[in-house]
Specification:
3 helices; alpha/beta
């Protein structure tokens, strides 16, 4: 009976690339989810602290920032009130589950934040949150 055994000199017939593809896809997903969050943090905003603070890593997310000079930014890009309302309305028409996260510098007056909330609501977006930071841990 003749049998074939693989010896040390035989070549590998193929390379299994499935684990490589799995890792590449996981890295791609991580990059896509964190890209918006990284861009939104480029606007210098001194956030207030809150004990119930949560991360803003949503896929269907509009990131609105109000800096110290009370300028508006949508996803890291400067925007006027009219541009902000129009873009949020366009996004809401495309996806009624869109959420907005408003990050306002702690020195911005309450009235300005209320105006931005009103703009968000006028655009049809009903799910929104105010971005805060968790309080610093006390030194032990």
């Amino acid at each position: 009976m003749a049998g074939h055994t693989q010896g040390a000199d035989d070549e590998i017939g193929g390379i299994n690339v499935t684990p490589f593809v799995d890792i590449a896809l996981v890295l791609l997903i991580i990059f896509m989810v964190t890209a918006k969050y990284i861009v939104s943090q480029q606007i210098p905003v001194d956030l207030p602290q809150a004990a119930t603070s949560q991360s803003a890593a949503e896929v269907r997310l509009a990131s609105i920032a109000i800096d110290r000079e009370q300028r508006l930014f949508l996803d890291g890009q400067p925007a006027t009130e009219a541009e902000l309302r129009a873009e949020l309305q366009r996004r809401w028409e495309a996806d009624h589950e869109i959420r907005a996260v408003i990050a306002a510098d702690r020195n911005v007056i309450h009235g300005r934040v209320t105006e931005v909330i009103d703009l968000v609501r006028q655009a049809g977006v009903t799910h929104f949150a105010i971005q805060t930071e968790p309080p610093a841990e006390p030194a032990r």
